[in-house]
């Protein structure tokens, strides 16, 4: 397919999807409205010819990019990179993305991951780029812990929390997927070239913008919805009040995916967005990978998180009366039964019964001058 001719070689839905990805931004409202009304092929022909549509307005916003539309060139780049083109209805397409209000028109992918299977057991771990050591530590624990339990770790390959999540998944040889806001032939951030290469080999990278596309803020925001839809659920580790990670959380919540956040110090601005998400947006609070697996895994069985308990105390081993008597005893000073009855507020019979229970458990001993705790 070439750009010659009035139709630019776009005569079927597959080529029309590729063309729309090239000439419009993801979720562009004019493009979405045209496609919803006329279908991919006819909508493209209207845009290519500058025809009138949508209340009689001339559709000319795509003219600049139409001049450089070369679908054959895009296909050649994919072949050279070993990238795959994924289309709805074809093998490898993650149908979970169809839950989005505006699903991607097509996807470019690299790596061995079966992207169609990723949403079944995966977790999106996202957060602040300017993360703290605490946030990086928790993100690494969640990434490694969920990865070891068979989850694919999905993130955006950015600095901070994203990088910590990817690296921790790689450390336990778990699959991890990076969703990019640039073309599949580009690396962003460039400082993460090695990391993105490792992610590509261990799992894969995915993007809805065509080869050669540079990352921009609108593309990052559009990318976030793909992260949210591709994963079983989303966990935000650290996020300020205006963090893009909260955009991912809200995108997940809108399509019914579980969402969770990690708490931080109340004085930390990079955790303020997480705390607000719990208070105002119904996010679940999680503190480690076990709780994430409990939230996103199968109901019951091995995915249940263990109960968290405080330190075991010796008085937990005995009944309430014995515990009450034990609290009056001292390890280095003996007390008579009469003294214990006063201090514990119990009868002599109750005290003697409790002392017998404590002695049987090795928690109290009878001395020459009275009763005391064992040392």
Note the topology:
Layout: H1 13-23, H2 29-38, H3 40-49, E1 52-53, E2 57-58, H4 63-66, H5 71-81, E3 84-86, E4 107-110, E5 122-126, H6 133-148, E6 152-155, H7 161-171, E7 176-179, H8 193-202, E8 204-207, H9 217-230, E9 233-236, H10 244-254, E10 259-261, H11 272-281, E11 284-285, H12 289-296, H13 320-328, H14 337-344, H15 348-360, E12 364-367, E13 370-373
Parallel strand pairs: 5-6, 5-9, 6-7, 7-8, 9-10, 10-11
Antiparallel strand pairs: 1-2, 3-4, 4-8, 12-13
Helix pairs in contact: 2-3, 6-7, 6-12, 7-8, 9-10, 13-14, 13-15, 14-15
Report on this model:
42% of the residues lie in helices and 12% in strands. The chain has 375 residues and is an alpha/beta fold. It has three domains: 13-69, no CATH class; 95-303, Rossmann fold (3-Layer(aba) Sandwich), CATH 3.40.50; 314-373, Arc Repressor Mutant, subunit A, CATH 1.10.10.10. The strands form three sheets. Strands 3-4-8-7-6-5-9-10-11 form a nine-stranded mixed β-sheet, sandwiched between helices. A two-stranded antiparallel sheet has the order 1-2. α6 links the parallel β5 and β6. The protein is elongated, with a radius of gyration of 30 Å.
Number of helices, where a helix is a run of at least 4 consecutive DSSP H or I residues: 15
- CATH topological fold name of the largest domain: Rossmann fold
Poorly predicted residue ranges: none
Largest sheet: 9 strands, mixed
Count of beta strands: 13
Number of domains: 3
Please give the CATH architecture of the largest domain: 3-Layer(aba) Sandwich
Structural class, by secondary structure, is alpha/beta
Percentage of residues assigned to helices? 40-55%
CATH class value of the largest domain: Alpha Beta
């Amino acid at each position: 397919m070439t750009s010659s001719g009035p139709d630019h070689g776009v005569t079927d839905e597959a080529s029309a999807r590729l063309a729309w990805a090239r000439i419009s931004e993801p979720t562009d409202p004019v493009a979405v409205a045209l496609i919803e009304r006329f279908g991919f092929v006819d909508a493209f022909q209207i845009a290519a010819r500058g025809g009138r549509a949508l209340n009689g307005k001339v559709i000319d916003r795509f003219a600049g990019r139409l001049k450089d539309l070369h679908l054959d060139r895009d296909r050649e780049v994919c072949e050279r990179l070993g990238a795959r083109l994924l289309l709805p209805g074809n093998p490898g397409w993650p149908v979970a993305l169809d839950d989005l209000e505006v699903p991607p028109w097509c996807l470019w992918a690299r790596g061995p991951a079966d992207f169609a299977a990723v949403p079944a057991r995966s977790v999106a771990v996202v957060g602040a780029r300017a993360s703290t050591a605490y946030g990086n530590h928790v993100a690494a624990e969640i990434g490694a812990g969920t990865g070891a339990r068979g989850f694919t770790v999905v993130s955006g390959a950015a600095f901070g929390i994203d990088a910590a999540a990817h690296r921790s998944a790689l450390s336990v040889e778990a699959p991890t997927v990076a969703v990019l806001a640039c073309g599949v032939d580009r690396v962003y951030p460039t400082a993460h070239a090695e990391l993105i290469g490792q992610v590509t080999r261990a799992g894969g990278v995915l993007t809805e913008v065509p080869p050669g596309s540079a990352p921009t803020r609108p593309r990052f925001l559009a990318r976030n919805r793909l992260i949210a839809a591709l994963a079983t659920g989303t966990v935000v580790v650290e996020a300020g009040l205006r963090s893009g990670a909260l955009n991912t959380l809200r995108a997940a919540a809108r399509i019914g995916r579980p969402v969770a956040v990690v708490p931080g110090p109340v004085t930390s601005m990079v955790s303020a967005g997480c705390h607000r998400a719990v208070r105002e947006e119904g996010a679940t609070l999680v503190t480690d990978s076990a709780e994430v697996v409990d939230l996103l895994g199968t109901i019951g069985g091995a995915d249940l998180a263990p109960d968290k308990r405080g330190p075991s105390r010796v008085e937990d081993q005995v009944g309430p009366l014995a515990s009450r008597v034990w609290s009056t005893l001292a390890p280095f000073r003996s007390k008579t039964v009469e003294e214990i009855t006063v201090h514990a507020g119990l009868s002599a019979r109750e005290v003697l019964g409790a002392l017998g229970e404590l002695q049987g458990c090795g928690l109290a001993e009878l001395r020459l001058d009275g009763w005391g705790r064992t040392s």
